[in-house]
């Protein structure tokens, strides 16, 4: 049995768990299984309808960043609050799936829409002068994109917004800063990203590689 077949069987073994979780927690809950051997179209199973994604959707910006930073040593993410582009709050947990060699091959993720709970909590806060109730503050932004193009554009847009300088006026150091941030966020794990980022910054492909070498040597 090839490693690809073995990995597929491991990932498929999580399907009954996904079904059980959604059956227990209802329509506000969604469980996804991603095959990270293909980050561009990693979603292989979804139960529930919270993020609006379909099979074949890519992995998210948050997962790309974690994979770029930690590789096979990446740790599970439990109880993180995120906010969708349409303003809903989600409570999310992600558990990375490994094969017998300890390689990360996929993940199972739970997305629970807690928007209505947060609204009720806000009302309670307004009628009480206490701070002992948990509030949802500063949630991470996650797009739950339907294709890898959207993921790439979101990463680039968020990164450029961190530099308050127009592209045509950016200095070399500012461009290196942009490349550093894009690298940290896993942008270069996306196929074809070097060419596209070079075009956006108005530099050559080789310049991007030179900047990456400077950054990674640091």
From TrEMBL:
It holds the Pfam family PAS_6. Residues 75-126 form the PAC domain. It comes from the Bacteria. This is Transcriptional regulator.
